[in-house]
Design brief:
Elements: H1 2-8, H2 24-32, H3 79-92
Amino acid sequence: MRQQIERLNPVPSWRTSVLEVEHLATLAALVRAGLGLSLVPALTLFHFRDAGLVALPFNEPALARPLVLARRKGQALSVAAQALRGMLLARLAVGDPGAT
């Protein structure tokens, strides 16, 4: 998340972080203790489900995680995998970079 925030604001006039931790449980404990707040991915919210905490949506379109469609190199896809790949690429309206 820090990298995405810094990309949006490359020369911040405010400090983006004073303390960084490796584990979300530690981060949740720090927030619970009143030592600050944090911007976290929605998939990590289970760490912050606590009566003393509140999670508010932060809908900033520029904050998005890049995704990749990974597959085995040199192997044919199953029929189901081909269908999924086609559906995803059509939904995203992008070309298939792995087609060559």
